[in-house]
Specification:
The protein is an all-alpha fold and 165 residues long. It starts with 6 loop residues before the first helix and ends with a helix. The longest helix has 31 residues. The mean pLDDT is 89. It has 6 helices and no strands. The chain has one domain. The chain is globular.
């Protein structure tokens, strides 16, 4: 939401993310694709959240990176990675194997509804933020980047400790 302008582009970006995580979620839940959850979580933070925050911090006079030019494409790529993260959480919860397609569809619909709820909650504060000086507008992006980097360091540490300890 820090990068996208207009309802059409926002809807396309959100839908691309949901479609992509749906694509990677099913094979991961079924066990066809498996990566260590700590690694997936580190990649989510370092390869999707941090780049979006950095793009939001890009000076307005600088040409946008791919994320800024095609946020729907970036969201699709990030959604593939996030689907793997969702899969590890769902696997831990335990899904009913006899109702797996319905459970996955329900989960995906729930994620889409959750995203739309977050968009609705953030719209007013975001409108206010867009009318503020550039340094104020940058605060959320810096906060998001800092949390994502801390998350990356924590998850990479967990991966390394599992390997070396």
């Amino acid at each position: 939401m820090l990068l996208v302008r207009g309802w059409r582009q926002l809807t396309l970006t959100i839908t691309a993310f949901t479609a992509a995580h749906s694509v990677s979620l099913a094979p991961a839940v079924l066990g066809s694709v498996h990566l260590p959850p700590d690694l997936v979580e580190a990649l989510i933070a370092a390869a999707s959240i941090v780049p979006v925050a950095l793009e939001a911090l890009r000076p307005s006079v600088a040409p946008p990176a791919l994320i800024g030019r095609s946020p729907w494409l970036a969201a699709f790529c990030f959604g593939l990675l996030h689907g793997l993260g969702f899969a590890s959480a769902l696997t831990e919860l335990g899904l009913p194997h006899d109702h797996l397609p319905a459970a996955l569809a329900s989960f995906n619909l729930g994620v889409e509804a959750g995203q739309l709820a977050v968009v609705a909650l953030v719209l007013l504060p975001l409108r206010w933020l867009q009318r503020q000086p550039r340094w104020v507008q940058a605060v959320p992006a810096y906060a998001i980047a800092a949390v994502a980097m801390a998350w990356t360091i924590e998850r990479v540490g967990a991966c390394l400790s599992r390997i070396f300890l």
